[in-house]
Design a protein that fits this description.
The complex is a heterodimer of chains A (159) and B (492). Chain A is 72% helix and 0% strand. Chain A contains 4 helices and no strands. Chain A has 159 residues and is an all-alpha fold. Chain B is mostly helical and 492 residues long. In chain B, 76% of the residues lie in helices and 1% in strands. Chain B has 21 helices and 2 strands. Chain B has a two-stranded antiparallel ribbon with strand order 1-2. The longest helix of chain B is centred in the first third of the chain and has 50 residues. The radius of gyration of chain B is 22 Å and the shape is globular. Classes of the chains: A mainly alpha (159), B mainly alpha (492). At the A-B interface, helix 1, helix 2, helix 3 and helix 4 of A face helix 7, helix 8, helix 17, helix 18 and helix 19 of B.
Chain lengths: 159, 492
C-alpha cells in the first residue's frame, strides 16, 4: 500500500470518528442559559475533524489523479510483521492478565517472552541472561515501589 | 531572617536530603510513565516526619531532578520521561542518532540548570509583583492563552499542516471523554464507570510514545538497532563558549517563556517546552534545521521546562495557588507542617522562604553536577540491546500508569493508546500535536465556559480585555503567517 492510500484510509477512519463525535454530542444533556453547554465543544471538535479529514481525502485523491503516484513496493508479510503482531498480542495479554496473576508473575512471563520475540537469534546463553533479568527486574521493582514507597501494584488473585 | 533561613539549609543532613532528592527525582523523571509529581507524592510521607526545612528541601530536590531527568530518556530513547521533555525529543534524539548523545545530554543538562536558575532569580526578586499580575488573569485570559498555545499546533505541523491539525484535534477529542468541566455532564463514557474521570495524561503520553515505540521497533531487525554505539569523547558539556554566546538570546527568551507559563496555574512545563521550541523555530534564521538535531531546539526546550519550576513556585509562595501538579503536591507538603503559603508567608515565616530559595539554588547546582557525572552512565544505556531494554521500559511504564490512580484501567488505556500511537505514526501523523491538544483542550473548554458564564453569554469580554485581546491577536497573526507560508511552499 502506498502512502496515498494509507492517507486516504486513515483520513476516512478519522472522518468516521469525527462523525460519531458529532452525532454523539446530540445525546449529551445540555442546558446552559448563560453561554454554551456540554455539547458545544464536542460539536465544534467533531465538525473540525470532519472538515480536516474530508480535506485530506479530497486533496490526496486529487494529487493521485494528477499522476503523482509514488510507487512504493507492497509490504510482504515477513518476519517483521509477525514479530509486530506477536508483540501487540503479548502487550494486550500482559495488561489483561495483570489483574489475575499479579504484577510480579505476569511481568516475569512478559519480559522473557518479549525479549525472545524481539531478538533476532536466540542462543542458549542469551536465554539464561533473559531469564535472570526477567526474574530480577519485577522483583526489584516490586520491592522498591511496594515496600519502600508504599505504592500499590496489582497482586492478582494469588497475592 | 535571611541568615537564619540560609543557615538552616547548610547543614549536612539537609544537603544530603537535597542530593538524595535530586538523585531520586532524576530517576523518576527519566523513566517514562513516572514523573516529578509522582516522585514528590511518594516522598510526601517521608517529608512529614522531617523538619519543615528538611522536608521541603527533599521535595524541591525531587522536583528539580524530576523535571530535568526527562531529557535523558527523551534524548536517548525518543521517549519523553515527563510531558515537560516532549520537545526535547525533536532535536535531542536526532542528535543522539548521529552519535552525539553525550553532547545532546550535556547541552540539555546545562541549559536545564540555566533555565532553572533564571526562574529562581525571578522568584527571589520579583515574585510579589508578578503574582499580582497573574491575579489579573480571568477565564478570558486563560482561554486566549490556551488558544494561542494551540496555534503552536500549526507550526508543529509544518510539512503536513492538515495531518498535524487533525492530530491536534484528535488530542482535544480525547479530553471530551468523561465528566465535562463546569457541569460534570458525562460525555462519551459508553457506560463504563472507569471513563467517568476521563483519560489520565500519563496513560496517553506513555502509550503514545513508549508503547507505540516498542510496537514500532518490534518489526525491525535488532542487529540494526544495536549498531549505534557511541564512542565517548566529551569535552566539558559538549559545546563551546562561542556556541554559548550564540544561544544567549534563545536561552533567555525560552527561560522567560517557561517562567511566564509556569506562573499561570494549571499550565506548566508540559506546555512551555513545546511553545518555546516553536517560538525559537519561528524566530530563528534557519528554521528548516529544527528537527534535524541542532542545539537551538534543545536549548529552547530544556531552558523553558526548568524555568517553569520557578514560575510555578511564584504563585504558590506568594498567593498559595499551585502553578502546576507538582507544586500542588508541594502545597500539601507545606500545609502538613502547618505552613499556609500566601501573602502572609513572608511575614510569618520569612526565614522559611529564604531556606526555600537557598534549597532551590543548591538543588539546581547539584542537579547539574549529578547529571554531568552521570552522562557517561546514561550513554551506556544506549548500548544495552534494545530487545532487553524495551521490555523493561514497558514494565516500568505499567508501574507508572497504574500508580497514577491505582487502577488497572489506566494500564488498559495505555496499551490502547499505544496501538493508536503506532497507527498514527504508521499513517504519518505527528504525535506532539496530539499531546498538546490533550493538555490544552481541557483548559480551552473550561475557561471558555467559565468566561461565558461570567459575561452572561457574551463573547465581547474575550476581545475587550487587553491581555486576552493581545494573545488572541498574536494567535490570529501566527495562524495567518503559517497559512501564507504553507501556500508559498506549495507554490514552489
Amino acid at each position: 500500500m502506498n502512502d496515498k492510500k494509507i492517507s486516504i484510509i486513515s483520513s476516512i477512519i478519522c472522518l468516521v470518528y469525527g462523525i460519531s463525535i458529532y452525532i454523539g454530542s446530540s445525546t449529551i444533556h445540555s442546558d446552559n442559559p448563560n453561554g454554551v453547554g456540554a455539547d458545544f465543544m464536542p460539536r465544534i471538535i467533531g465538525s473540525i475533524i470532519i472538515c480536516l479529514s474530508l480535506f485530506i481525502v479530497i486533496s490526496t485523491i486529487v494529487s493521485m489523479k494528477k499522476g503523482q503516484n509514488d510507487s512504493e513496493p507492497k509490504e510482504a508479510i515477513d518476519s517483521g510483521t509477525r514479530k509486530t503482531i506477536m508483540t501487540i498480542v503479548l502487550l494486550i495479554a500482559y495488561a489483561f492478565l495483570l489483574k489475575y496473576t499479579g504484577f510480579v508473575i505476569t511481568s516475569i512471563v512478559y519480559l522473557i517472552l518479549q525479549m525472545i520475540i524481539l531478538a533476532d537469534k536466540v542462543r542458549k546463553k542469551d536465554l539464561l541472561l533473559y531469564g535472570v533479568i526477567s526474574v530480577i527486574t519485577p522483583l526489584l521493582v516490586n520491592y522498591v515501589f511496594v515496600h519502600i514507597f508504599s505504592l500499590m501494584l496489582p497482586s492478582g488473585i494469588l497475592g | 531572617m535571611l541568615l537564619e533561613g540560609l543557615i538552616s539549609v547548610f547543614t549536612p543532613f539537609t544537603i544530603a536530603l537535597i542530593l538524595g532528592g535530586v538523585f531520586l527525582g532524576i530517576i523518576f523523571g527519566s523513566i517514562p510513565g513516572m514523573s516529578a509529581t509522582m516522585g514528590i507524592a511518594l516522598c510526601l510521607p517521608i517529608s512529614f516526619g522531617l523538619e519543615p526545612v528538611q522536608g521541603l528541601s527533599l521535595l524541591l530536590g525531587i522536583y528539580i531532578g524530576g523535571i530535568s531527568g526527562g531529557l535523558i530518556s527523551a534524548i536517548l530513547l525518543n521517549m519523553p520521561g515527563t510531558p515537560a521533555s516532549i520537545a526535547t525529543t525533536f532535536d535531542g534524539y536526532p542528535m543522539a542518532q548521529r552519535g552525539d548523545a553525550g553532547r545532546a545530554l550535556g547541552i540539555g543538562i546545562f541549559y536545564s540548570a540555566v533555565g532553572g536558575m533564571a526562574s529562581f532569580i525571578a522568584l527571589i526578586f520579583i515574585a510579589p509583583p508578578i503574582a499580582n499580575f497573574a491575579l489579573k488573569f480571568a477565564p478570558y485570559e486563560y482561554f486566549s492563552v490556551a488558544i494561542f498555545a494551540l496555534t503552536m499546533l500549526a507550526s508543529l505541523a509544518e510539512g503536513n499542516m492538515a495531518k498535524g491539525l487533525l492530530a491536534g484535534m484528535l488530542g482535544i477529542s480525547f479530553t471530551l471523554v468523561g465528566a465535562a468541566p463546569i457541569d460534570a455532564t458525562k460525555r462519551f463514557t459508553l457506560g463504563i464507570t472507569d471513563l467517568d474521570g476521563g483519560f489520565a495524561l500519563m496513560a496517553i503520553l506513555v502509550g503514545l510514545y513508549a508503547i507505540a515505540e516498542i510496537i514500532n521497533i518490534s518489526g525491525e531487525s535488532q542487529e540494526k538497532n544495536n549498531e549505534k554505539i557511541t564512542t565517548f569523547k566529551l569535552k566539558g558539556f559538549g559545546f563551546s563558549i562561542k556556541e554559548f554566546k550564540q544561544q544567549l538570546l534563545n536561552s533567555c527568551r525560552s527561560s522567560a517563556i517557561g517562567t511566564g507559563i509556569g506562573i499561570l496555574p494549571g499550565i506548566g512545563g508540559g506546555t512551555s517546552n513545546i511553545i518555546s521550541y516553536v517560538v525559537a523555530k519561528k524566530q530563528s534564521k534557519y528554521p528548516d534545521k529544527f528537527g534535524t538535531g541542532i542545539m537551538d531546539g534543545l536549548v529552547a526546550s530544556e531552558s523553558s521546562n526548568n524555568a517553569s519550576i520557578g514560575g510555578a513556585l511564584i504563585p504558590l509562595l506568594s498567593l498559595g495557588i499551585p502553578g502546576d501538579t507538582a507544586t500542588a503536591m508541594l502545597l500539601g507538603g507545606l500545609m502538613v507542617h502547618g505552613i499556609t503559603p500566601g501573602p502572609m508567608l513572608f511575614k510569618t515565616n520569612g526565614s522559611l522562604i529564604y531556606s526555600i530559595f537557598a534549597a532551590l539554588i543548591i538543588a539546581n547546582i547539584m542537579m547539574l553536577v549529578v547529571e554531568f557525572f552521570g552522562i557517561r552512565i546514561f550513554v551506556r544505556i544506549l548500548s544495552v540491546p534494545k530487545n532487553i531494554l524495551m521490555p523493561i521500559i514497558v514494565v516500568l511504564c505499567v508501574v507508572g500508569a497504574y500508580a497514577g490512580n491505582n487502577r488497572i484501567f489506566d494500564v488498559y488505556a495505555m496499551m490502547a493508546f499505544g496501538l493508536v500511537g503506532w497507527g498514527l505514526v504508521k499513517c504519518k501523523f505527528p504525535l506532539p500535536p496530539v499531546i498538546l491538544g490533550f493538555v490544552l483542550g481541557k483548559i480551552v473548554e473550561a475557561n471558555l465556559r467559565r468566561g461565558l458564564m461570567l459575561s452572561r453569554g457574551s463573547f465581547i469580554p474575550f476581545i475587550t480585555s487587553p491581555i486576552s485581546a493581545t494573545f488572541l491577536a498574536i494567535a490570529l497573526i501566527s495562524v495567518i503567517l503559517s497559512i501564507v507560508k504553507g501556500i508559498k511552499t506549495q507554490k514552489n
